[in-house]
Design brief:
mainly alpha; Growth Hormone, Chain: A; 22 helices; globular; MFS_trans_sf
Length: about 525
């Protein structure tokens, strides 16, 4: 194959965004939207309205103090509540009001969200390897069907136990399965030039899903009807089996060269290019240097520099996820005002970040922007915790700080996907991203429980979220910069990658890369 022919094929299928890539990308994005819907549905379906004890009418004539969880009798004794009256200003009925998940049972609401996040963790661990073995498309479509079925079934639960089980299933297939495989299909369809921007696009569609949760919640105040609507969103995914193509790279790696060739020729035809792949061109496009040894997650910890880098990066994933979901899932307690408006505002705060972050990281580097975003975002969380919000001015300041914090954390969270991929050698790159994602899912599982600490002090959750972000932002300065540097290929290159390169080295003692430059 001539040099010109090879360059032409690569530019069509990887380097440029033709009609084929855009069509497939739009289809890949839809699971990100439904993932946002399912993962944030708790904010409306499981909302906790203001409430107080329900007491006999005659008690109102006596000198008693009626609280949220107990009644102070006139003789000084305290009686715990067994029934409650809920404020209906913003909410009709939710799982909290139907199943009395307040006061001593408040932890069960946290458990519901935690179970969903744990499902996402399980999905990443189980479905990731299955997608590598059986194909991205099969796992994608199976996940789409499962989230459509169980998203609807959740609306017909009359008890919290089956509801919690379904939440776990939605985490596995809605939060992990469909989203993860859609993301992988996109990354394997486009070249390095477009991966950052298209990765941010996935995050943006997730944010749109969260905004949709707020919009539907505003108009529908019955949680079962609302959950049914959320579940029906997944219907938009049911055509993916016929519309989405399998990863060409995966097909080729499995020896299914004829299928890979057919899809590649289809893409060339849709893009109005020469629709014929000649003998030997597939090998040129997809053959990579082979390692004689296989590697896994534990290999990231075997050598000293890669071990420290991995611990640092995993904490980065952990911190970003903790703060991201901590702010997004607690808008009703962190902010005063219409909870639907606050949720939509905080969720949509991601979008400006996804617009300017790709430019910033390609201009100033991954390390510096990630660190700055986390340091300022964490500081904003702590400032919001100590700002009084009992006045209009104070409330506006708190809202501004929370939105700023969410905007910046969303940016750093999106950056670390590509940052991690660029930092690790090819043979463990997937393991590194998978390990980071597992740490992120672990922290999002803990987020609802940290939120319960507001029972001791309303400021405590925000202070914890902000402090974790500050610490991680500082530690990020010790990671190597990856901008305009070739990615390592072997474990040896990975261990030597970025030797002496920290934000404090100021160009001194930095080793020169011996890694060969890769093709665009």
């Amino acid at each position: 194959m001539s040099r010109t022919s090879r360059s032409n094929k690569e530019s069509v299928f990887y380097a440029s965004l033709g009609r084929y890539q855009i069509q497939q990308y739009v289809l890949h994005l839809l699971p990100a939207f439904t993932a946002g819907v399912h993962m944030l549905s708790q904010t409306t379906v499981g909302a906790t309205p203001d409430h107080k004890c329900s007491v006999p009418e005659e008690w109102y004539q006596e000198n008693v103090t009626i609280g949220e969880c107990s009644v102070q009798m006139k003789n000084g004794t305290e009686e715990p509540c067994s029934e409650w009256i809920y404020d209906t200003t913003y909410y009709g009925n939710t799982i909290v009001t139907d199943w009395s998940l307040v006061c001593g049972q408040r932890w069960m609401r946290a458990l519901s969200q935690s179970i969903l996040m744990f499902g996402v963790l399980c999905g990443a661990m189980i479905l990731g390897p299955l997608a590598d073995k059986y194909g991205r498309l099969k796992i994608l479509y199976f996940s789409c069907v499962m989230q459509a079925i169980f998203g609807v079934l959740a609306a017909f639960c009359h008890h919290y136990i089956p509801f919690f089980i379904i939440k776990w299933v939605l985490g596995v297939f809605g939060g992990a399965g469909a989203y993860m495989t859609g993301f992988v299909l996109t990354m394997e369809m486009v070249g390095r030039k477009h991966r950052t921007a298209m990765g941010f696009g996935f995050q943006a569609l997730f944010a749109f899903g969260a905004v949709a949760v707020a919009i539907w919640g505003y108009f529908i105040r019955n949680w079962k009807t609302l959950q049914l609507v959320y579940g029906l969103h997944s219907i938009i995914l049911l055509g993916h089996w016929w519309l989405v193509d399998e990863s060409v790279g995966w097909l080729y790696s499995q020896g299914r060269k004829d299928e890979a060739k057919a899809i590649l020729e289809k893409s060339l035809k849709v893009n109005k290019m020469e629709a014929e792949v000649k003998e030997g061109e597939m090998e040129t496009l997809f053959t990579a240097p082979k390692e004689t040894q296989s590697y896994g997650l534990l290999d990231l910890l075997k050598t000293p520099r890669m071990r420290l880098r991995t611990i640092n990066m995993c904490f980065n994933w952990f911190s970003n996820s903790l703060v991201y979901y901590g702010l997004l899932l607690n808008t009703d307690t962190l902010l005063s005002g219409n909870p639907y408006l606050m949720l939509a505002l905080v969720a949509s705060a991601d979008l400006p970040s996804y617009i300017f972050s790709p430019y910033l990281v390609d201009r100033f580097g991954r390390r510096s922007i990630t660190s700055i975003f986390m340091l300022i975002g964490g500081g904003a969380c702590i400032m919001a915790a100590f700002t009084p919000k009992d006045t209009a001015t104070g409330s506006a300041i708190v809202i501004s700080l929370v939105v700023l914090g969410k905007l910046l954390i969303a940016g750093s969270f999106a950056i670390i996907y590509n940052y991690t991929a660029e930092m690790y050698p090819t043979v463990v790159r997937t393991s590194a991203i998978g390990g980071g994602a597992m740490c992120a899912r672990l922290s999002s599982t803990l987020t609802p429980w940290i939120s319960l600490l507001d029972s001791f002090d309303p400021k405590l959750p925000s202070v914890i979220f902000g402090s974790v972000a500050l610490l991680s932002g500082f530690l990020t300065l010790f990671l190597p910069e990856t901008l305009n540097k070739p990615m390592p290929q072997t474990m040896e290159e990975g261990e030597e990658y970025g030797r002496g390169d920290t934000a404090f080295s100021l160009g001194k003692n930095r080793s020169k890369s011996t890694i060969p430059t890769e093709d665009p």
